[in-house]
Amino acid sequence: MDDLFATHDALAVADLVRTRKLGARELLDGTLANLRKLNGALNAITDFYDDALPAAEGPFQGVPYVIKQLMADCAGHPTTLGSKFFAKQPLAVADSTAVARMRKAGLVIVGRTNTSEFGLAPTTEPAFGGATVNPWRTDLSPGGSSGGSAAIVAARGLPMGHATDGGGSIRIPASLCGLFGLKPSRGRISLAPIGETLAGAGAQHCVALSVRDSAALLDATAGSEPGDPYGIASPSGSFLDATKKSPGKLRVAFMRTPVGGAALDPMLVKAVEGTAKLLEDLGHHVEEAAPDYDAAALNAAFWMVMSANTYTNIQLRSAGRTPGPGDLEPVTVETAKRGGAVSANDYIRGVQTFHRTGRALGAFFGKYDVLLSTTLARTSLPLGTVRMDGTLEQFDEQVAPMTAFTAVCNATGVPAMSVPLEWTDDGLPIGLHFVARLGAEETLYALAAQLEQARPWRNRRP
Q1: Which residue of 45, 64, 356, 427 has the fewest C-beta atoms within 10 A of its own C-beta?
Q2: Among 336, 339, 387, which Cα is nearest to 144's?
Q3: CA-CA distances (angstroms) from residue 173 to 60, 131, 145, 164, 387?
């Protein structure tokens, strides 16, 4: 049981349960015991749900799963948002729509995973609960804000785990932990009962060891609810089916530097060039090109929207309570203050910047099918690099190389994925970032499956 997920992905484990080659209770009890052992070293899981019961049906029948402490509720339990202030209340009265769909697919929710406070930082080192460490090297962060889920999956404690993404928080930890992570298109997975997060920039899905698990989970969770502010056309087939098909000859653009950004570490440039060569060898048309948009204006708009949402969410969730000293981290407090001063005029202009950038990407994807870069503009993230106890100016500088390639996808709503295809000289994973036009998850899954076969990563583990 200890090494089951090193050799079986979630669909394979579910098949063992379905064919009664593995008992659902045996799987649940054995996984929980192993997770507790791993968590002692990783500090990835904040709460274990000891009342979890094996599921009876679904494509992921009986497979244990964890939910991040952000953007998703589990009935009867708090959603802490990584914050001391919300550690015990309010308790969720019902599952979020996505969580309910996960349960219906057969997943067994066994606990919640660590996140940075309010998901603000692309690391997972909250004052409440402490830092999660990267199983590849314990002086490194697994990234964030979905670092708890990524760390436990990278350690082979689970085959996949829930993750959310407001500026890169699925793809950043996937890159740093050697996992596959896809952020779906805006509106692909309902955020009900809430309407949206970050002016539509927020999304949720998972980090996973295999491409097909991610695709099958998206099949199970995709779809809108009545009244959702965003919707998107259903795919022509299933996402899982897309992983079994050739992507065809794709038009791929690649970038050696972020739009409006500084030069990358030579190791990252080498990773992009090596992946571009791999894509050429697989029959795709590859050339260097980049979309044209105002990166500085987009960054300013993104943080204004983030700040305003932070301020408002604290007001809404506190239900009249006032945070006391130490209840919120310094950067969270300052972010909320900045958000409280945002005018309606400025907020609308920020959202218009999102949409203007979306138009630019839309034009770009009229010529190309996929945009390739590295996921991050740095090779690793030592613990303590991104701090929540300094100034906002320092925080912004620390975050910039983490979101240089990812945040634009959130602002514009397009799907993007991090794929663990390259490695640093000292053996750490490097995620390669692939972006496609709005609604083109099928293209990304077909390409990811092709890459997974051409350059498999499953046996590369901490």
Answers
A1: 427
A2: 387
A3: 23, 14, 8, 11, 17
> Do the domain assignments include residue 462?
no
Residue 140 included in any domain: yes
Cβ-proximal residues to 131 (8 Å cutoff; 6+ apart), any chain: 43, 124, 125, 141, 383
Q: What CATH number corresponds to the domain at position 184?
A: 3.90.1300.10
428, pLDDT greater than 70: yes
Torsion sign (Cα): 400, 402, 404, 407: negative
Q: Is 104 a catalytic residue?
A: no
The count of domains in the chain is 1
User: pLDDT band at 1, cuts 50/70/90?
Assistant: low
The amino acid sitting at 4 is L
Residue 90 confidence (pLDDT) = 82
Give CA–CA dist 324/40, Å, rounded: 30
Residue of 139, 156, 149, 199 lying closest to 172 (CA atoms): 149
User: Does the annotation mark 244 as catalytic?
Assistant: no
84 is catalytic: no
Q: Which of 96, 116, 145, 418 is catalytic?
A: 145
Q: What is the DSSP string of 35-62?
A: HHHHHHHH--EEEE-TT-----SSTTTT
**CA gap 398, 288 in Å, rounded:** 28
Asked whether 160 and 205 are in contact (CB, 8 A), the reply is: no
pTM above 0.85, yes or no: yes
The answer to whether position 460 is within a domain reads no
Domain of residue 398: give its range: 4-454
Preceding peptide of 169 cis, ω within 30°: no
459 occurs within a structural domain: no
Report how far apart, in Å, the C-alpha atoms of 202 and of each of 36, 256, 407, 462 are.
Answer: 30, 26, 10, 30
Identify the active-site residue in 149, 169, 190, 214.
169
Closest CA to 387 of 397, 377, 376, 375: 397
